[in-house]
C-alpha cells in the first residue's frame, strides 16, 4: 500500500494502510431528529459551551444537554459544572420522531462551530439514535458518540425566586471585573466582592499584589447585599451575553447569582457565590 | 510601600517593596574591552547561537565564546554542542586593556539581539571583569554574569584537511533537506543520507512514514562518498548561511562535515555525521 508523489527531482513514497481497516461510520438511521437554523444552533452552542465541566469526574457534564420543549416550539441547550450553569433556548424549525433529549460531547460542538458556514438562514439536521448523533448540513455528515448517564437535575439548581434584582450595563460591569482580575493571583482565588447598595455596586478585591476598588451606577433598586464570586465564571457569563443590559437576580449571599435578559427568557446564566471573609 | 493608581471610579492600590532591597548592579570597571559595530555583533551572535548546547551537562557550552585574534584585527564567536560547532569572525573597531576571551551566556546574547537598534554602523562597547561582562550602547547598560570553566578545545575538533569539496547552492540544498525532513519521525532520528557522486548529490531518507529521494546537481567534483546526518543540525547551519553558495568539505563518512564560504574564512559550521545502516 504505497503512494508515490513526485515533482521535479523529488520523489516521496508514503506508506499507506488498507481502506478495509478504516472504521465504518456508525449509521444513524433513526427518525428522531430536530432541525435548526445555523444561526440559532451556533448561538446556543456559543452561549453554553463555556460552562461545560472540564474535569472528567462526571463525564456526562463535559457535554451539552439538548432538550426539547415541544409545546414551546423550542429546544434548550444546557451546560453545567460545579460552579455555574448556562441555558440557552432557541426555536426549532422542525422536530421529527421521538426526539426528546441527548447530551452531545462539547468537542463535537466546538468542531461544528468551526466548520458551519456563515449562511445563517440555512438549516442543520440533527438525528439521534441510542448512542450516536449525526449532524447533516450542505454536503457534510458528521457523526459523534453521545454521552451516556444521568445529566444533573439542573432545574432544581435554579432558585425559584429572588430577593431583589438589579439592571446592569453588561460591558460596564464586564470591564470593571476585568480590571479587578488584574490583581488576581493564579494560585489563590481572590473573590471579587460586590456590594449592591440601592443605586450602585461597589466592586472590590484584594490579593498579595494589592487592592482594587470601583463603582458602577445602576437604576435604583430596593435592597443591599454583599456577595463574592470567582471573576473567571462571571466574566465568561458576561462575555456570552449579546445584550447591552441584563438583569442580575439575588436571593442571599450564599445563593446562586442569576443573570438573564431583561424581558425575555431565552437564556439564563448562573454563577455560584464564593463565601467572603469578613 | 503602596502605589495608588486611579482613573474614573477605579482605584488600584499596589503593594511595593523598598528600593533598598533592589540588588545593586555589579560594577564592571575593568579596562578590558572590545568595541564592535551593531551589524557585526548581531551577525556573530545570529550565526553561532543556534549551536550552543541546550543541556546543562556542561554549563560552559550553553554560552558563546568570544575570543580575540589581535593580529588579525578580528574577534571570533564560537558555539559548540556534542554534535556541531559554529564559528563566526568579525573585525573589531577597538580593543582595550587585556581583553582576550570570555564565555557569555546565550540568554544575555538573545536579549541583546532583541533590543539592539537597527542603526548598524553604531558601536557597542563590551567590557569584562573576572565574573561579569557589560554591554554599553546608546543609553543602555546591560550586565551579565560570565560562564566559568574551560571551554571545549574547539580547534582540535576541526579537521585540518579534506578529501574533496563540493560547491552547493545553499537554498537548493536547504529546501531538499527540508522536504526530506517531512518524513522524519519525532521519536527516532532517521538520518538524511547524502550520496556525493562526482557531479550531483543524491539525498534520501526513510522512516516508518515512507521514503524520500531527491537529487541536487553540482559543479563536477573529484570523488564519491555516502554520508548521513541529523537534518536538524544541517538545516540550522544552512539557515545561518547568508551566502548563495557554500563549500562542503568532506574527509570520510565518519569525520565532521564542514560548511564554509567559498573564498572567505569568516565563518565555519561543523556537523558530525550519523553512522548509516548499510
Please give a quick description of this structure:
The structure is a homodimer of 278-residue chains. Chain A is an alpha+beta fold.
Task: Tell me what the structure shows.
The structure is a homodimer of 278-residue chains. Chain A has 278 residues and is an alpha+beta fold. Chain A has two domains: 33-148, DNA Polymerase III, Chain A, domain 2, CATH 3.10.150; 161-271, Proliferating Cell Nuclear Antigen. Helices cover 16% and strands 41% of the residues of chain A. Chain A is built from five helices and 19 strands. The first copy, chain A, has helices spanning 38-46, 106-115, 154-157, 170-181, 231-239; strands spanning 2-7, 10-15, 33-37, 63-69, 74-80, 84-91, 94-96, 101-105, 123-128, 132-137, 140-145, 164-169, 192-197, 200-206, 210-217, 224-229, 245-250, 257-261, 267-271. Chain A has an eight-stranded antiparallel β-sheet. In chain A, strands 7-3-9-10-11 form a five-stranded antiparallel β-sheet. In chain A, strands 15-14-13-16 form a four-stranded antiparallel β-sheet. In chain A, α4 (170-181) packs antiparallel against α5 (231-239). The longest helix of chain A is centred in the middle third of the chain and has 12 residues, at 170-181. Chain A starts with a strand and ends in a 7-residue tail after the last strand. The relative contact order of chain A is 0.15. β15 (210-217) of chain A pairs antiparallel with β2 (10-15) of chain B, so a sheet runs across the interface.
Amino acid at each position: 500500500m504505497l503512494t508515490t508523489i513526485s515533482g521535479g527531482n523529488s520523489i516521496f513514497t508514503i506508506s499507506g494502510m488498507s481502506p478495509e481497516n478504516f472504521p465504518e461510520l456508525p449509521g444513524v438511521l433513526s427518525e428522531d431528529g430536530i432541525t435548526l437554523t445555523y444561526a440559532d444552533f451556533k448561538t446556543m452552542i456559543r452561549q453554553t459551551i463555556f460552562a461545560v465541566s472540564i474535569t472528567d469526574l462526571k463525564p456526562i457534564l463535559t457535554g451539552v444537554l439538548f432538550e426539547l420543549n415541544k409545546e414551546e416550539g423550542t429546544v434548550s441547550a444546557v451546560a453545567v459544572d460545579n460552579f455555574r450553569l448556562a441555558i440557552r433556548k432557541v426555536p426549532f424549525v422542525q422536530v421529527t420522531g421521538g426526539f426528546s433529549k441527548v447530551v452531545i460531547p462539547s468537542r463535537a460542538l466546538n468542531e461544528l462551530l468551526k466548520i458551519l458556514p456563515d449562511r445563517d438562514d440555512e438549516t442543520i439536521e440533527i438525528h439521534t439514535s441510542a448512542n450516536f448523533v449525526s449532524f447533516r448540513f450542505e454536503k457534510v455528515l458528521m457523526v459523534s458518540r453521545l454521552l451516556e448517564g444521568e445529566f444533573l437535575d439542573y432545574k432544581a439548581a435554579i432558585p425559584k425566586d429572588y430577593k431583589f434584582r438589579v439592571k446592569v450595563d453588561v460591558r460596564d460591569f464586564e470591564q470593571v471585573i476585568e480590571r479587578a482580575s488584574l490583581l488576581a493571583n493564579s494560585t489563590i482565588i481572590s473573590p471579587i466582592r460586590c456590594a449592591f447598595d440601592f443605586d450602585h455596586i461597589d466592586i472590590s478585591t484584594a490579593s498579595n499584589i494589592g487592592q482594587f476598588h470601583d463603582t458602577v451606577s445602576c437604576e435604583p433598586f430596593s435592597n443591599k447585599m454583599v456577595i463574592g464570586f470567582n471573576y473567571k465564571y462571571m466574566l465568561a457569563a458576561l462575555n456570552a451575553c449579546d445584550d447591552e443590559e441584563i438583569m442580575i437576580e439575588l436571593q442571599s449571599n450564599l445563593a446562586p447569582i442569576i443573570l438573564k435578559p431583561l424581558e425575555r427568557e431565552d437564556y439564563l446564566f448562573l454563577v455560584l457565590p464564593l463565601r467572603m471573609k469578613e
